[in-house]
Amino acid sequence: MRYKGINHVALATNDLDSTIRFWRDLVGLRLIAGLGRPGYRQYFFEIGPRDMLLFFEWNKVRPLPEKDHGVPVKGSFGFDHLALEVETLDDMWQIYDRFKAAEIWVSEILDHGFIYSLYSFDPNNIPIEFSWANPEFDLRRNPRMQDSHPVSEALKGPERVSGVWPEVNEPTSSQERKIYPGEGSELRSKKNNW
Questions:
Q1: What span, in angstroms and rounded, lies between the C-alpha atoms of 118 and 128?
Q2: Half-sphere exposure of 55 (CA within 13 A, CB side)
Q3: Distance in angstroms (rounded) separating the CA atoms of residues 8 and 29
Q4: In the chain, what is the straight-line distance between the N-terminal and C-terminal CA atoms, in Å?
Q5: What tens-digit pLDDT sequence spans the chain (194 residues)?
Q6: Phi-psi region of 121 (alpha: psi -120 to 50; beta: other; left: phi over 0)
Q7: All domains of the chain, ordered by start, with CATH?
Q8: H helices then E strands: how many in the chain?
């Protein structure tokens, strides 16, 4: 079995217009699909050739409270499920069979049009999805908007819209560019505990 990467990470918002402006227009991710209707939407952003970010729009969801990265919280959340993309449909059946043999609950394989998926939970009760990309329909090559009433920002299309955010007039000079060590920088050391 070979994984290709993360198919999508699913998060939630109650304001899809602001979310689109941030992820598409500020961050620069392409909006490649929109599904749903007022009160329940799913919009996909392309992270890279194989990775996407999904936002559900739920009217009553609240944004996460401000917190430092990696610090546990309780209460409101913004994470829905983790989806891992497999290379072949046979890989999906291997996962299905392995979960069944281990007597771990796993859904049937479902056809979502652009992906086939099966669902389960990890030992921490984190919802997981395994996906196989349907080669007959590629949203990255052919973005689609199927939302019956798209939000106004989505109607502007999948590509970055210029003029939404201020242009950079004074870029940081090469002399001012400083990079500070952070967690993980120690991975570059020659020491290896294996």
A1: 9
A2: 26
A3: 13
A4: 25
A5: 678 888 898 888 888 998 898 888 887 879 988 888 888 889 999 988 889 989 899 988 877 656 555 566 677 666 678 777 888 999 999 999 988 999 988 999 999 999 999 998 876 566 778 889 998 888 888 999 999 999 999 999 999 999 999 999 999 999 999 988 875 666 677 766 65
A6: beta
A7: 3-65+72-163 (3.10.180.10)
A8: 2, 9
